Amino acid sequence: MGRKEKVQEIRGKDTRELNYDLEQLRKDLFHARLQVPTDTGRSSDIRGIKRQIARILTILKQREVELAGEVKDAKE
Fold first, then answer.
1. CA 5 to chain centre
2. To 5 degrees, how large is the angle CA 10–CA 15–CA 16?
3. Cβ-based neighbour number of residue 52 at 10 Å
4. Phi and psi for 63 in degrees, rounded to 5?
5. What pLDDT digit, counting tens, does each position of 26-65 carry?
6. Domain ranges of the chain
7. Nearest CA among 51, 56, 61 for reference residue 29
8. C-alpha angle with apex 52: 47 to 58, nearest 5 degrees?
9. Rounded Cα distance, 34 and 37, in Å
10. Which of 7, 25, 43, 53: CA 20 to 30 A from 15?
């Protein structure tokens, strides 16, 4: 699955689902860091988890800014 498909999948979820996924990914990251550091492929797993967390946080922030703009427009 390419980067664009991953982003589209994330955008298709609602905020509650994204917060749940974010919580699970943070747990996965914690457990991945506890694994033996010499295990090959572990660093790529950690990197992938961190990127997925960043994607989710970016989309959540975009939604927050968009919502704040709508609230500001409604007040004017």
1. 14
2. 115
3. 17
4. -65, -40
5. 999 999 888 866 666 677 889 999 999 999 999 999 999 9
6. 3-75
7. 51
8. 125
9. 8
10. 43
Measured over the CA atoms of residue 57, residue 61, residue 67 and residue 68, the dihedral's sign is positive
Q: CA torsion angle for 16, 47, 40, 3 (degrees, to 10)?
A: 80
Q: With a cut of 90, say whether residue 21 has pLDDT above it.
A: yes
Compute the distance between CA of residue 51 and CA of residue 3 in angstroms, rounded to an integer. Answer: 10
Torsion of CA 47, 30, 55, 66, to 10 degrees: -160
Asked if 51 and 43 count as a contact pair (C-beta separation under 8 A), the reply is: no
**pTM of whole model > 0.85?**
no
For residue 63, the tally of other CB atoms under 10 A from its CB is: 14
User: CATH number of the domain at 3-75, out of 3.30.310, 3.90.550, 1.10.10, 1.10.287?
Assistant: 1.10.287
